[in-house]
């Protein structure tokens, strides 16, 4: 059945340097409904008797080059045992949710997006319990990232910051906080991703709501904020000169800077660490509950999860801008003195329906 599942993702989005944020990082209710219809027939025909030679299926978001490198590194030691199905963060969220509503998630492992979708799956008892004996690299994760009461593991962290085009401002003209972005002097300058189309943008909006309340979103709208389809478009539109400011993940700027350095051109987008703090969004990984999975398949799946939090794999993901959760890898992306804002993911789950309804009314009326 899982081989048939691959047919559904043959045309999956090809990732550019912006990685998780592809041309259309969507996770809307429309997408979920459409994908539910797609997987119904798939589940009805499913062969429950899996064979030992079936590969482990991984739904993953992230830069294509990074994902390919990780797959090559793991399979160099283990053999051709996994299929990495690359999607945007929003596609991971919407596809997984659509499949569970239709009766079965086709992936063995889910990696990427943010904790919100994992908490939803955990509520439905759809994630396997983390077995420390099978995933021994957990002992090397920093204490702040160890989740004793969750059935998923935090793999990386990214930070939501203010971005700007350095050609558009003098130092004294720059905003210093999220609150500054609502001032008239920055009217029509700001771009952020649309939370109704991007799962990461929904996480950002949840964090802003927790920090500033609903009124802040209205202030942004009144000040002429532009909504892009994805977070990847935020630094791109700033770099192209369409906007001067943005709110988005730091790692997309890191990758654009690396590419500019490699190709020999100037990259004018820089980062401001806001005075309120940089919003932290973690990238989890989890094993999907599946009673038909063989012991050998479960062993391979756990080996892959253990590999992803190994030092070898974490050094690869770090090169693409993602902060490591390991004790033995220094976080070089965020200043030591910078305050970090942690999202209350439990509250975000409770607030999601109310927030999305308000957001839709505010920005789509």
Automatic annotation (TrEMBL):
<dbReference type="GO" id="GO:0030976">
    <property type="term" value="F:thiamine pyrophosphate binding"/>
</dbReference>
<feature type="signal peptide">
    <location>
        <begin position="1"/>
        <end position="22"/>
    </location>
</feature>
<keyword id="KW-0732">Signal</keyword>
<dbReference type="GO" id="GO:0030288">
    <property type="term" value="C:outer membrane-bounded periplasmic space"/>
</dbReference>
<feature type="compositionally biased region" description="Basic and acidic residues">
    <location>
        <begin position="34"/>
        <end position="45"/>
    </location>
</feature>
<feature type="region of interest" description="Disordered">
    <location>
        <begin position="26"/>
        <end position="45"/>
    </location>
</feature>
<dbReference type="InterPro" id="IPR026045">
    <property type="entry name" value="Ferric-bd"/>
</dbReference>
<dbReference type="Pfam" id="PF13343">
    <property type="entry name" value="SBP_bac_6"/>
</dbReference>
<dbReference type="GO" id="GO:0030975">
    <property type="term" value="F:thiamine binding"/>
</dbReference>
<dbReference type="GO" id="GO:0015888">
    <property type="term" value="P:thiamine transport"/>
</dbReference>
<protein>
    <recommendedName>
        <fullName>ABC transporter substrate-binding protein</fullName>
    </recommendedName>
</protein>
């Amino acid at each position: 059945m899982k081989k048939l599942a691959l047919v559904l993702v043959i045309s999956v989005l090809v990732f550019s340097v912006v990685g998780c944020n592809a041309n259309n990082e969507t996770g809307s209710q429309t997408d979920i409904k459409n994908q539910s219809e797609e997987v119904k027939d798939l589940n009805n025909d499913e062969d429950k008797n899996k064979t030992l030679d079936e590969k482990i299926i991984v739904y993953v978001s992230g830069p294509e080059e990074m994902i390919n490198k990780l797959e090559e590194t793991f399979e160099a030691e283990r053999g051709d045992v996994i299929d990495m199905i690359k999607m945007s963060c929003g596609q991971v969220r919407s596809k997984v949710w659509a499949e569970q509503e239709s009766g079965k998630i086709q992936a063995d492992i889910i990696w990427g997006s943010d904790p919100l979708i994992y908490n939803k799956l955990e509520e439905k008892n759809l994630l396997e319990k983390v077995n420390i004996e099978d995933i021994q690299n957990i002992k090397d994760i920093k204490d702040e990232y160890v989740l004793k009461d969750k059935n998923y593991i935090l793999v990386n962290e990214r930070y939501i910051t203010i971005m700007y085009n350095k050609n558009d401002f003098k130092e004294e003209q720059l905003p210093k906080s999220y609150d500054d972005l609502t001032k008239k002097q920055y009217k029509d300058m700001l771009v952020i991703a649309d939370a109704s189309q991007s799962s990461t943008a929904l996480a950002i909006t949840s964090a802003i709501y927790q920090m500033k309340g609903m009124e802040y979103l209205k202030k942004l709208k009144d000040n002429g904020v532009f909504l892009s389809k994805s977070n990847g478009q935020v630094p791109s539109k700033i770099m192209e000169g369409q906007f001067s400011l943005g709110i988005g993940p730091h790692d997309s700027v890191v990758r654009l800077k690396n590419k500019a350095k490699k190709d020999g051109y100037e990259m004018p987008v820089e980062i401001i660490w806001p005075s309120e703090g940089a919003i932290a969004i973690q990238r989890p990984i989890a094993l999907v509950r599946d009673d038909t999975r063989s012991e050998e398949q479960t062993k391979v799946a756990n080996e892959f999860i253990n590999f992803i939090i190994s030092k070898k794999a974490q050094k690869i993901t770090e090169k693409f801008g993602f902060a490591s959760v390991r004790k033995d890898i220094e976080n070089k992306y965020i200043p030591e003195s910078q305050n970090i804002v942690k999202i209350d993911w439990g509250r975000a789950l409770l607030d999601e329906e109310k927030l999305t309804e308000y957001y839709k009314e505010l920005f789509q009326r």
